[in-house]
Amino acid sequence: MPLEPIKAALLRSYEQDGGINHLDGSNLPSEAAVDALARGFMHLLFPGFFESQTPSRSEVADLVGALLTKIERSLRTEIAKSLAFAGHADAKGAAKEEALHLLGELPGLRKLIQTDVEAAYNGDPAARSHDEIILAYPCVLVISLQRIAHILYQRGVPLLPRMLTEYAHERTGADIHPGARIGTHFFIDHCTGVVIGETTTIGDHVKLYQGVTLGAKSFALDPQGNPVKGVKRHPDVGDHVTIYAGATILGGDTRVGAHSIIGSNVWLMNSIPEHSLVTYEGANLSVRHRRKHESLEVELSFTSGDHYEI
């Protein structure tokens, strides 16, 4: 088939079916630029870890200064595109303010992300050093970029936050919405297949294993049959909770009480109190109060089985 009819058919599909970038209007954020921003953020968070040649201490100031200049320029451009898409009257002016605000949050974010590195080191007996965690554990990338994207999300910047977390999703297999609120010392072991929804709240010292879903039961619809936006749809997880591989916890009114353990492959749509142990006994779901010191015994029994070890 000649190429000319194919071109004509594609042009018709652009007009009829959409999905084309905003020609003659505001452009959309560049995927390549956002991916480069994601990589740049990781260099700023952990200077010396991802460079091809390790800088000396005397070179760090120049390295950080150059990175900040490059990232600020690109970040301002991509935020401006995002705000223009949303119809902001002064997209360029607001983009400069938002870019500087986000970059100003990085020192505090570094302190918070260090708690995630610590949680990974303390939560995985296979880890040999904090450096290994930063270099080789996918949870560091996905959690770090989610925390950055969350700031943009809270400030009302469209498109860009989700693109940043999607970069991490593509690289790690873990999909954390930028709207999720996550406390300190967060660890996702193995990382792959984890899904955390937009309105999820996660407390401090929470540990997840691969394949965990913190999702929605169903979507409320308006009279026209469209999904209702902006409602609480995803669960809340309290402090010091461990959720093992393949567990699914659904619903905006579902609360997992602090110091609880959720066993592998559990399907949970109801709240449980603090200090709960949730497992399957045969085909039946068992929810009971954890006995004193039981957490160590339970974790040993899980890790010695076939639930998630490779």
Question: What is the gist of this entry?
Answer:
The protein is α/β, with parallel strands linked by helices. The protein has helices spanning 3-17, 31-45, 60-85, 91-123, 130-136, 138-154, 160-172, 294-303, and strands at 175-176, 181-182, 187-189, 195-196, 201-202, 207-209, 213-215, 236-237, 242-243, 248-250, 255-256, 261-262, 267-268, 276-281, 284-289. Strand 14 and strand 15 form a beta hairpin.
Describe the structure.
- With 310 residues, the protein is of the alpha/beta class.
- It folds into 2 domains: 30-172, serine acetyltransferase, domain 1 (Orthogonal Bundle); 193-310, 3 Solenoid (UDP N-Acetylglucosamine Acyltransferase, domain 1).
- It has helices spanning 3-17, 31-45, 60-85, 91-123, 130-136, 138-154, 160-172, 294-303; strands at residues 175-176, 181-182, 187-189, 195-196, 201-202, 207-209, 213-215, 236-237, 242-243, 248-250, 255-256, 261-262, 267-268, 276-281, 284-289.
- The strands form 3 sheets. Strands 3-6-9-12-14-15 form a 6-stranded mixed beta sheet. The protein has a 5-stranded parallel beta sheet with strand order 1-4-7-10-13.
- A hairpin with a 2-residue loop joins strand 14 and strand 15.
- Helix 2 packs antiparallel against helix 3 (60-85), helix 2 (31-45) crosses helix 7 and helix 6 packs antiparallel against helix 7 (160-172).
- The radius of gyration is 22 Å and the shape is globular.
- 33% of the residues are buried.
- Mean pLDDT is 90; it is low at 296-310.
